[in-house]
Specification:
By secondary structure, the chain is an all-alpha fold. About 70% of the residues lie in helices and about 0% in strands. It is elongated.
């Protein structure tokens, strides 16, 4: 499954509860990707 995130600065600055959940999922996904990238680089 492919999940795509787009960063919308205006939406981020005016975040409501639903948007906050969206950005929280995005942050968790970025952390996971960075962690797995570190495993492959070292």
């Amino acid at each position: 499954m492919v999940q795509v995130f787009a960063l919308d600065d205006e939406r981020f600055m005016k975040a409501n509860k639903r948007d906050q959940e969206y950005f929280q999922r995005l942050l968790e996904r970025i952390k996971l990707i960075r962690t797995s990238a570190k495993m492959y680089l070292y």
